[in-house]
Design brief:
By secondary structure, this protein is of the alpha/beta class. It is built from 8 helices and 9 strands. It is globular, with a radius of gyration of 18 Å.
Length: 236
């Protein structure tokens, strides 16, 4: 089976003083995470969609889904964890307990606040995860990347043609990811907060899937204004 695991556990501290976590803020005429869910709903290859959110927001998430999505038969709301890796693992444990685990199962992990992913990106992630076992969505770095270890002076300026900006989905063979996350120590989980980075450091190749510049993550008020501009532009 092919699962989409939407990570909706962020508190949105960089969004400023808002009443709701950022994934629940309005984008156009519906909450941000609803746009994201709808993109996965459109893809017929996705068998189940898990929305992983804080326990305190599970009821709110379910109520919001009822308001905006008529057919919720493919959607399940799952309790998230204290960290990104813990949240992903909670979703994988739920999948195993409810549906069993097969060697060829695929999971796409995606930020709830990246509502502009496309069907092409979803399909390329599925195909890549089936072929390679682990893929990360990226776009080329258009600006020069400056590396600084102290935040005061330049440590290095990497070759731009070798630099990419990471997006999501990050997609995996499900048993591979589950076994790998289970093998990490608590210290490693705290340091290796990105699953693809952790796999690379531990020696597992992660292949690239090309994303889109507009597959943006809505993190700040400025991001939200830009995103609303994109939504308005889609209506023209």
């Amino acid at each position: 089976m092919i699962y989409a695991e939407i990570l909706a556990g962020g508190k949105g501290t960089r969004m400023g003083n808002t009443e709701l976590p950022k994934q629940f803020l309005m984008l156009g005429d519906k909450p941000i995470f609803i746009h994201t869910v709808e993109q996965f709903m459109l893809n017929r290859r996705i068998d189940k969609i898990l929305i992983c959110c804080p326990e305190a927001w599970i009821s709110y998430t379910k109520d919001t889904l009822k308001k905006y999505i008529a057919d919720r038969s493919k959607i399940v709301v799952v309790k998230g964890g204290a960290s990104r890796n813990d949240t992903i693992m909670n979703g994988l444990n739920f999948i195993e307990s409810e549906y069993g685990l097969n060697d060829d199962d695929i999971v796409l992990t995606h930020d709830a606040v990246r509502p502009f992913l496309t069907q092409r990106i979803i399909d390329d992630n599925i195909d890549g995860a089936i072929k390679y076992g682990a893929v990360d969505t990226v776009v080329e770095a258009f600006d020069t990347i400056v590396h600084s270890t102290d935040g005061e002076t330049i440590t290095d300026i990497p070759v731009r043609s070798e630099m990419y900006q990471g997006q999501t989905p990050q997609s995996f063979n499900l048993p591979l990811l589950k076994n790998f996350l289970a093998s990490l120590s608590e210290d490693e989980k705290n340091i290796l907060t990105d699953a693809c980075k952790a796999l690379v450091i531990k020696g597992t190749p992660v292949h690239l899937v090309r994303g889109e510049v507009y597959n943006m993550k809505i993190t700040t008020q400025h991001d939200l204004k830009v995103a609303n501009g994109l939504v308005e532009g889609q209506k023209i």
